[in-house]
Write a structure and sequence with these properties.
Number of strands: 7
Structural class: alpha/beta
Shape: globular
Radius of gyration: 29 Å
Oligomer: single chain
Strand order of the largest sheet: 3-2-4-1-5-6-7
Mean pLDDT: 83
Length: 360
């Protein structure tokens, strides 16, 4: 039976239309071409940073944080041009136990200073994921009132695995903000850990935030973190918690009295603050001003900054040695081979390390 006289059936498929065009363009797709990067005018960027251009400051910080080799060279040229304009501010490191309200305090305190006419830069460090390496970087969104201030600058950065809860380039970022004319730099760390000496080593004043009723009375017994603090804030001292906050403040004052001061010539103290009710914020600023006057009078201000720069220099030597060690292809092969021997029990870890550095 032919198709012409075949009875209608669901199994019968009519022939399609031959030829024609479906309207789609099947020409060869265009090849993606990477846009050629324009040469960065370092002198112009430095000039824009000095002229209080916040977009240029953000661009300069991105350049500083880049791991690109060309960007690294450009970043150092930029810093070289801006270095003579740095150092004219007070650097404050802020840390605290999780939930202490570091971001809330920084927003309330920074907003108060901005309204006083101070130029405030906040370097907020967010913890990076140990799995993906990513960060949420939500502090800028959370500090809604502060970011609206015309003389405030908030820059969130990932910790990127750096110890101490700060970014590896936080020191250089701080110098850029100083060159841009900011009076006060607030560095918010990830939180209290075992490496707070890293933060202490890059700021003038180290501020610790604690809470009442959350085991923080015991936190006072952790001598290491207490000895680093120039001031302790008993935070969230509002409502029914006000009385307990004052009691906790007195306890910390007693503890601090028996500890070695973090800064020679300055007696560390404790205050209560409510960021929600905006209480005690002016007391914090008065404490900072008294600290600056006392430490500058004894000349320890410049002594500490010189010591911090020297330590920074030596830590960068260590970083450079580690990077150059692992960039050597022969070294990489040797490390993998020794790893295999160690895992199979043919070598101890100490023998493996010694084999890497033995004279050939």
């Amino acid at each position: 039976m032919t198709k012409d006289n075949q009875e209608p059936s669901a199994l019968f498929v009519m022939e399609g239309v031959k030829g024609g065009h479906d309207g789609m363009n099947y020409s060869n797709p265009k090849k993606f071409r990477k846009k050629k990067q324009e040469n960065l005018d370092i002198s112009k960027l430095a000039e824009q940073v000095r002229a209080d251009d916040r977009t240029s400051l953000a661009k300069a910080i991105t350049l500083i944080e880049s791991s690109n080799t060309v960007h690294k060279e450009e970043a150092q040229k930029l810093l070289q041009e801006l270095l003579p304009h740095t150092g004219n501010c007070i650097r404050i490191g802020i840390t605290g136990v999780p939930g202490a309200g570091k971001s809330s305090f920084i927003e309330a305190f920074g907003t108060m200073l901005s309204k006083m006419g101070k130029r405030v830069a906040v370097l907020a460090i967010d913890p990076s994921s140990s799995l993906s390496g990513g960060s949420i970087l939500g502090d800028k969104t959370r500090m809604e009132e502060l970011v609206r201030q015309p003389n405030a600058f908030v820059r969130p950065s990932p910790s990127a695995g750096t110890l101490g809860g700060v970014h590896k380039k936080s020191r250089e970022t701080m110098l850029l903000c100083e060159a841009a004319g900011y009076d006060v730099i607030l560095i918010e760390t990830v939180g209290v850990g075992q490496s707070e000496t890293y933060v202490r080593g890059m700021v003038d004043f180290f501020l610790l935030l604690v809470l009442t009723g959350a085991g923080d009375e015991l936190q006072g017994m952790k001598k290491g973190i207490m000895e680093l603090a120039d001031g302790i804030i008993v935070h969230k001292a509002d409502g029914d918690n006000t009385r307990f906050a004052r009691k906790t403040m007195q306890e910390y004052k007693q503890i601090l009295h028996f500890l070695q001061p973090s800064t020679p010539g300055w007696m560390s103290t404790s205050l209560t603050v409510s960021s929600m009710e905006k209480k005690g914020l002016d007391d914090v600023w008065n404490m900072l001003m008294a600290f600056e006057e006392t430490v500058k009078k004894s000349n320890y201000w410049s002594i500490r900054r010189h010591a911090q720069t020297r330590d920074w220099f030596h830590s960068m030597i260590t970083d450079h040695l580690i990077d150059s060690f692992y960039q050597n292809s022969e070294r990489k092969k040797q490390v993998r081979s020794l790893e295999d021997d160690i895992l199979k029990g043919r070598l101890t870890v100490t023998q493996g390390v010694n084999a890497l550095f033995e004279e050939k």
